[in-house]
Amino acid sequence: MRLPAAALALVLAAVTVWSAPVAPTPAVSGVDSVVISVSDMSRAVAFYTQVLDFRVVNDREAAGSDYEHLLGVFGARIRVVRLQLGDEAIDLLEFVAPRGRPLPADLGSNDHAFQHVAIIVSDMDKAYARLRQNHVEHASTGPQLLPDWNPNAGGISAFYFRDSEGNFLEILHFPPGKGAARWQARDALFLGIDHTAIVVADTEASLDYYRDLLGLTVAGESDNYGTEQEHLNNVFGARLRITALRAQSGPGVELLEYLTPRTGRPIPIDSEANDRWYWQINFSAAQPEAIFERLRAAHTTLVSPNVVTLNTTALGFSRGFVARDPDGHASAIATTTSP
Question: What Cα–Cα distance (Å) separates residue 254 from each residue in 27, 116, 169, 206?
């Protein structure tokens, strides 16, 4: 039976509407850098460049209402030094004014303010020796070789320590067959940054933020425990649920949920960007406005009142906003620029 022309047109229109492609959900495209707070920029730059072989990319200072609104700190004047190691970058952030609260001396690896970057090394023994020669403060009792019974972590060696400012860092060595292929290079001792790790209270709540709202994908999971993990984290009885997340480019984001002990302290609810425990992950996004609206609809804590256009690119981006995840870790979602 042949349909009348008018009826056929309606059917075709319906098919066209039904099969129209759905616009992709805006998501972050990569991790541009990780921001680490410092109190003495000269001392920090010397540590990262002389001990860990980072190189300075730029050194910038910024102030004004744009940065006040972005970071939520009135009167903010900041100095930012971007450092690069391999393909990855960190931004050392010093508040020239106003100075915030100091880093708690008793901050532990299971406190929710804990965050680190994992620096990949080509030789753990040589890297540890370099750190000992420079008198770094241990956060682990010593390098730990994770056991073979753990299929995802077995054979990896790791060590936690503190930088010149007291911030936690990790060196990590991958055996053949683990990690990205480029981490098997032997042309340098310190190769780059694999991920930044954060302590979270509830993995599922964090996945709602990083996976469902920002668009990161789950790259791996692991259940880590035993004497090696306890001595790595320096937390007796430590058992962690670890979830690795990735964007299209840049370091990963690793969620560390302590299943035991569940005694880690939350990030203070009144934390601000000039407090010394402040870290920030800078995510690249082509459509920060769309992500801002999605986060607002999800009742996410937003530090910036809207997407802020910046007069300078001290933090590596020209337009963006800052939000906080369910535990209070800061994220900047922004249109990034070249260094």
Answer: 18, 10, 14, 11
Q: Lowest mean pLDDT of 67-71, 179-183, 273-277, 325-329, name the range.
A: 179-183
Q: How far is CA 142 from CA 60, 125, 138, 145, 179, in A?
A: 36, 11, 7, 10, 22
On whether residue 19 sits in a domain, the answer given is: no
Give the domain CATH number at 236.
3.10.180.10
Distance CA 286, CA 320 (A): 10
Which residue range forms the structural domain that includes residue 290?
Answer: 30-336
pLDDT tens-digit profile of 151-196? 889 999 999 999 999 999 999 999 999 999 999 999 999 999 999 9
DSSP assignment letter at 284: E
The SS3 of residue 308 is strand
pLDDT value at 16 more than 50: no
On the 0-12 / 13-18 / 19+ scale of CB atoms within 10 A, 159 is: buried
Q: Please report which confidence band the pLDDT of residue 40 belongs to, taking 50, 70 and 90 as the band edges.
A: very high
24 part of a folded domain:
no
Model's pTM, two decimal places?
A: 0.92
Tell me whether residue 105 is in a domain. yes
Which of 5-9, 118-122, 259-263 bottoms out in mean pLDDT, i.e. has the lowest? Answer: 5-9
Domain count, the chain: 1
Q: Is residue 22 part of a domain?
A: no
Whether the CB-CB separation of 108 and 264 falls below 8 Å is answered with yes
Please answer whether residues 78 and 203 qualify as being in contact, where contact means their C-beta atoms are separated by less than 8 angstroms: no
